[in-house]
Amino acid sequence: MRRSMIARVVGALVALAALASACGSADDSAGADGEFSGTLMIGAIPDQDGEILARNYGKLADYLSDEIGMEVEFQPVTEYDGAVTAFKVGALDLVWFGGLTGVQARLEVDGAEAIAQRNIDAEFTSVFIAGTDTGIEPVDDIAGLSVLEGRRFTFGSESSTSGRLMPQSFLSQAGVGLDSFAGEPGFSGSHDQTIALVEAGTFEAGVLNSQVWEARLVEGAFDESRVRVIFETPPYYDYHWVARPEIDAGLRQAIVDAFTRLDPAVPEEAEILSFFGAESFITTESSNYDQIEAVGREIGKITD
Amino acid sequence: MTIETVAPTDTPTRTPTPTSTGRRRRGWAAIIVVLVIWSTQRAGVNLPDLINPRGWGQVRSFFAAMVRPDLSPDFLRLTVEETAVTLSYALLGTALSVAIGILGGPLLSERLWRPLAGEPTTRARWGWRLARFTFAVPRSMHEVVFGLILLNILGLDPLVAVLAIGVPFGAVTAKVFSELIDEVPSDAERAMRAAGAGRLTAMIFGVVPTALGDLLSYAFYRFECAIRSAAVLGIVGAGGLGFQLALSFQSLRYDQMWTLLWALIAVGGMADWWSSSVRRRRSDSGPDLSAGEGASHSLERDPFLVASAAGGALMIPVAWWWLDLSLSSLWSPRTRRLGAELAGDAWPPQVGPGGWRSLIADAADTVALAMLALALAWTFASALAFLAARRKRVPGGPALLPGRTLSWLSRFVLLIARSVPPPVWALLAVFVFLPGLWPGVVALAIYQFGVLGRLEGEVVENLDDRPGRALRAAGASRSGAIAYATLPAVSTRFVALGLYRWEVTIRDTVIVGVVGAAGLGQRISEQTSSFDYQGILASIAVLVVLTVAADIASAAIRRTLR
Amino acid sequence: MLRLDAVTVRYTPGGVAAVDNLHLTVEPGERVALVGPSGAGKSSILAVANGLMLPSSGTAEVFGVDTAALSRREHRATRRRIGTVHQDFALVGSLRVIHNVAAGRLGTWGPLRALRSLVRPTDRDEIHAVLERVGIPEKLWYRTDQLSGGQQQRVAIARVLFQQPDLLLADEPVSSLDPTRSKSVLDVLVEACEADPARALITSIHDAPLALSHFTRIVGLRDGQTVFDEPTRVVTPEMLDRLYAFEDTPFDP
User: Fold this and answer.
1) Domain coordinates of chain B in residue numbers?
2) Where are the domains of chain C?
3) Which domain, by its residues, includes A161?
4) Closest CA to B217 of B132, B104, B301
5) Under a CB-based contact definition with an 8 Å cutoff, are residues C32 and C217 in contact?
6) Which candidate in A5, B96, B134, B173 could, as Cys together with B101 as Cys, close a disulfide (CB 3.0–4.6 Å)?
7) Could you give the CA distance from residue B442 to residue B462 in angstroms, rounded to a whole number?
8) DSSP letter string over A189-222?
9) Contacts (Cβ under 8 Å, ≥6 apart) of B18
10) Residues of A with Cβ-Cβ distance to B253 under 8 angstroms
11) Are residues C199 and C206 in contact, defined by beta-carbon separation less than 8 angstroms?
């Protein structure tokens, strides 16, 4: 029997539809309200060395899985707000957030809590940098940041705490608003890009996470004769793990323990710590981020 | 709407006189020139304020990494896996868009709404307009905007990328299919309706089989676009090559970027080759002498197209499996709840801080950005198209176009220009341009240059080159022959293609909003990071209006070109 | 069966009338030949009869009802009973012959049945038999656009035979056939009409001998008006000759 071409195409479509409905009836993932069950989905905002973290997630997931005795899956995210949205809709249960994104996430999800952070996150700082040939000299205090008026200036990512939120707050304390720069301020997208753009002279000055700055300085990733620090901000709370309310108290404690137990002396665990650029993890609580929330509201990044 | 009848005599139709068309054409040309001048003014022309020569260092090191990509086994494995993800998104997105196109095409065609005899009823006219409008809105939204919305409803689900590609592409495909349907000779379908068949039945039997071959070959072009789109979606978080590209770029790992970019260029190049082979074969097949008219529409006579379509269809389950795709989230209660929440959060749209003034300024920036990018892209693409066109094998005699090596090289440059996602071009452009509109302009211009150059190259390929070769044989110089024989023949097609890319370019401004003062794209990016859904809705609405306006204007101008 | 009452057809408002105030009634069992020079209005009359065209003025009644008064559903039910062999065949070139013949029954099929039939053609034996009657049974599985013009014309006729309409309309059904085949095709149409006394056949045709040999009644047309309308036995070859004679001279019987 000869069958027409159309027969074949329609046949394929029918097979596809059958397949679709078969797949549609497959397992529904967990994440329903009530007791936590299924796989723990964890994620992280793309911050410093996002590519290393994202591509080595298996190690962290395996470690956590062993420690808390349940399946753990790491879901990488490239955008800050993407991570918040994924947390909000329950696609991620436990996320490594920045200060601002953590607050935004907790405000979106009733009952979500900040549970752990790195030792350095309780006293985190940003550095303002400037091109050496711009004539912008280092300053001693917050008020001195007014030297940036009328300059081309770039932040990091729009949602970054150390690359945008806190620096913008300090700038406004110095009387420098978003409209005080030459043109609109840039949003470079990452801390590394900020260094590169200031080094290249596209922007005369910029601001980034001091931890990344230190790390790149050690690596010699840029030309020190072209960029220098002009100011280091006062400390504030930054990065932390935020858990959804479905993670009950027992599980939450188990997760916190798993993080705080990470030991730099054990090679595999040291590796995980190094992905995060941390020496150790400590416990934290949501109230530590009240300052961030206040600043977020002040500059309009938190609206509700 | 034209009403066709089986009139034994010619029915006179009102055609615009040559002079009125010419006047209208000159009017449009003047408007475009004014727009370009205005855009240039807005972007700034004083070079010292625009160029940052010191940034070349970064750009140089980026291109230096081209020849020394990261080839470590781990990274190669990652690259292969992510390539499969990107291809899967593209394939499933294309399949969805073809399905939407096949269902929507008849609905959008004038033919479905036209009665067998007499004028369409008022109800039919409005039905047709409503159908057109329903499809116009998704068509004017970028895949990234869909991705953004769907992420809020479906979460981190591979379905987000598939739908984000499939829905807007489906709306485009439906429009194209409806045009194909309306071009099919109407006699058979009308005969079926005259014998009592329903409109849809008559269309299925009398029209679709004829238009289906062209639709399938168009689907291959869509697949090629879908790969580029999947890469961009990856950059904003959907996974695949684009995702890894973004990660590596954030840490300025140019060596890794080039591994990923080469993969993107390779799959992009293969898809381009496939798609243009399919289309070239269809346009080459020509009327079959023994068969009379309609033979060039033959579906079956081309085993390559059939094999390609079957191969593509067979890969669908594989891609499905690779992405571990599940449709269950589409009708889960969570999706419904989140969808309702999002709608509640976003309604009513709000202009937000800065008011209408800043929204209008951003919209103006967007228009200027797109206008300049397209003008630049079109100029360079039109020049390169002659070099890039594939050479026909000519037995003896002086060739019209320069040698094969140059052609190959030009096509390679175009391939790179369109394979590297525009956001990457934008981030590079920021190094050499000072903040402002120009980085975005240059990024979009390079990308559109790659797309347009290829499409215009195809126009040159399909051209009858005998007049030009005759001039060459009569002793004309190469440029002389091109100027006198080829240029007049292709120029209107080039202009039409450029106009066709106009709405696409406006849509695309949304993805180069990464770096300062890039209009609505930058605005949406900032609003997204503040979760200002009402503001996002307002910005998207403005962008849709601009895109639709460009679409209408471009269609109006293209009509004067015929 | 068909009654045209004062029907006028203009393709453009105020333009020349292709059919001018025409009266024509056809009863079951009749086989009517429409003859006349090109532009006489033959095709337009058939188009009004099968509903492809609305009269600019006057009324067209089919099976005793005014087509203008019908709802869409009733209209379709009426059209199902009218089969037309179109001058340009109106076939889908990219479909196989079997599908083009099957399209005759589309009036009784919904979209789903139509789709299914494209995948797996139904009524194969019946279609084969119909093709046998028009003399091309071996072309059942050929793509239609691979056939010659004469073969395509016979596919168009096969489609109408398969439809089994009560009112058969044929617009120049033998124009692309040689004399022998023309005769056999008209034989087939006549036979289909005679199979049921309730059927009627209306055909436009240029060939005078065939008109005289196959039809019961001949309507001579010129400039959209009836010149004569007589039973075949009273029509003489001279009447036909004069009908075609000089376009500009008024007809004088």
Assistant:
1) 357-391+398-562
2) 1-81+165-253, 92-159
3) 125-232
4) B301
5) yes
6) B173
7) 30
8) SSHHHHHHHHHHTSSSEEEEEHHHHHHHHHHT-S
9) none
10) 51
11) no
Domain B357-391+398-562 has CATH 1.10.3720.10: yes
Using only C-alpha atoms, chain C has a radius of gyration, in whole angstroms, of 18
Distance separating alpha carbons of residues A112 and C247, to the nearest angstrom: 93
Report yes or no on A22 lying in a domain. no
From chain A, pick out residues whose CB is under 8 angstroms from the CB of B251. 48-52, 190, 192
In a domain, A30, yes or no: no
Specify whether A256 is located in the same domain as A118: yes
**Contact C94/B210, CB-based, under 8 Å?**
yes
Q: Does the pLDDT at position B331 exceed 60?
A: yes
* Same domain as A255, residue A181: no
Spatial separation of the C-alpha atoms in residues A120 and A126, rounded to whole Å:
12
Closest Cα in chain A, distance from residue B29 (Å): 33
Query: Per the structure, how many domains does chain A have?
Result: 2
d(CA C208, CA C36): 10
Phi/psi zone of residue B493: left (φ > 0), alpha (ψ -120 to 50 degrees), beta?
alpha
Range name among B146-150, B219-223, C92-96, C242-246 with the lowest pLDDT average:
C242-246
Residues A272 and A286 in one domain: yes
In a domain, A27, yes or no: no
User: What is the CATH topology of the domain spanning C1-81+165-253?
Assistant: Rossmann fold (3.40.50)
For residue A226, being part of any structural domain is answered with: yes
Same-domain check for residues A271 and A247: yes
Q: Is B392 helix (H, G, I), strand (E, B) or coil?
A: coil
**Closest residue in C to B202 (Cα–Cα):** C106
**Angstrom distance (rounded) from CA B61 to CA B252:** 10
ipTM of the complex: 0.88
Residue among B180, B173, B200, B182 at smallest CA distance from B100: B173
CA C175 to chain centre: 13
pTM for this prediction: 0.81
Query: What is the per-residue pLDDT for C247?
Result: 56
Question: Is A106 in the same domain as A250?
Answer: yes
Which tens digit of pLDDT belongs to each residue from C171-203? 988 887 888 888 888 998 998 888 888 899 999
Structural contact between residues B285 and B298, judged by C-beta atoms closer than 8 angstroms: yes
Question: Hey, is B526 helix, strand or coil?
Answer: helix
Beta-sheet strand order (sheet of A72-76)? A72-76, A40-44, A94-97, A240-243, A113-118, A281-283
Are both A96 and A107 inside the same structural domain?
A: yes
